[in-house]
Give the backbone structure.
Amino acid sequence: MTHKREYTVETEYTYDRASPARWIVSHALRYPHLPAGMVLLGILSTALGTQAPVALGRAFDHVLSPGRNARTLLLLSLSVLGFWMGQAALDVIHRVFSELLSRRVQRDAREELFVHLLGKSLAFHSRQQVGDLMARATDDPRTLNYMFSPTLRGFVLWVAQLSLVVVTIGTIHPHLALVPLVFVIALAWTLYNYIRQFAPIAEAQRAQFGVMSARLAQSISGIEVVKSSVQEGAEWRRFRTDASRWRDLYVRWGEILAQPLPLLVYYGTLAFGFVHALVLYVQGMISLGEVIALMGLLGQLEATTVSAVGMFSLFTRGVASARRILDMVNAETELDENPAGVARPMRGEVSFENVSFAYDSNPVLCGISFRAHPGETIAIVGQTGSGKTTLVRLVNRIYDACEGRVLVDGVDVRRWNLTSLRSQVSTIEQDVFLFARSIGENIAFGAGREVAQGEIERCAREAEADEFIARLERGYETIVGERGVMLSGGQRQRVAIARAFLADPRILILDDSTSAIDSATEDRIQTAMRRVNAGRTTFLITHRLSQIRRADRILILRRGELLDQGTHEELMQRCATYRRLFARKAAERRPTTDDGRLSTPAES
């Protein structure tokens, strides 16, 4: 099954994602020598283990026989020791194979999910909870790991031991195989019922862990709001409720595990097997040594029985985790990277042709048409909610238009190679995101190449960021913290502007990018921007009148429609809406006197 994706890895391995079971098997078969080795080693190890009681029984028969001799007893004793030591050695190697496979599957599943999350659209991510995604990417692969070690290793030994014990007992005397055969059937029925009870609880456990993780992530990421609103108690109560639900599911899980039915089946088998063997012994059909061998073989089934319930409980958890991972991997996304699409340096011409867009069923843009020529600066103004940010997000295909076309250099953006398109478009938003890395790394992020320190410092100077960076103890090596919390809003915006300068885009989108910067610094940045933006197409969303007036063209949006467009002078003459917007913003910027009145030019 092929899904649209915005990002792929060339060397990516293809897994069978039709169902959780097939996906798990395809992960294991990526390393065929490991599961094959586990099966072979499991059979050999179990075979040696089942021969030890047989050799022990022969030793007893030899002791009781008239023609016993020390040499034969020594050989039989050494054979028992050899079987046990051989089983132990093979079991160690078996564990190594199991651990190698489980760790590789865990790593591969985590990488597969991460690559697919990178390839999902922004619309997809806006519907997800970060904490739940983190749980799927970290804890669910770990649970999947347990499905291979110890579960798969235990399952191989379990099947091998049940089979070989029944066969070996049958070789002692065919009648003796009846009781262990009944045991196998009874145990299989018991475990089937356990799985039916475990499966829904395992699904609920994994889902509740995601809910709890999402709650934790949300509370921590919004800790400033929590504290300023004095809501620590409310958040604690919500988290405690989620944690209690998770605990209750584990209590229910433990209640099922504690049910003694498998052990009752085993001890019943042991009793009936012993009685049956004694009857055959009294009838002279088997020897005392064969009775001892039978009891030794049946004794090996105790550990198998005890481990079976826990093993299958881990199996159901692994399937539940696999389903959660696959839900994200197989989730449909709206965009495709279009690897065979147009990939060339762009001039920067942008055209909207009767473009409409809606979030689900909520219309945001309706019938937008305009053209931005290469090197032109387009200011977009309108009231909050008029669709300004949505409009510019259609340029680099963060979203795709629902109707109409968006063209770059005369080519529909859907025909562009997504990497080529986005690498030539840079966006600076009001809410700047910085990674918890150094300032230098944040500036270099997005360049797509090795960046010299001199280039980083040059772009920082052009963005008026070098002055505050120089005052920091570690300069460009300063770690900015999660989301850049160690820097002020204005400092973060200047780092983002430096990052955009370094990316050297053909199209630059500035979405209120200097809102947290003082006027004097903004003037210096705007001077630098006009210098570096020569030949670049720039879309400008701002409340700063000075920037709006300098734009080559201004688009007026109202309720998702393009009301008018033109230069500042043209719009002041013919567009009443623009005059009102401009007058309102001018009034907001005028200082007031001590009594609260707007000052006149003479007063200010």
Observations:
- Residues 350-589 form a domain with the Rossmann fold fold (CATH 3.40.50.300).
- The mean pLDDT is 86.
- The radius of gyration is 36 Å.
- The chain has two domains: 20-329, 350-589.
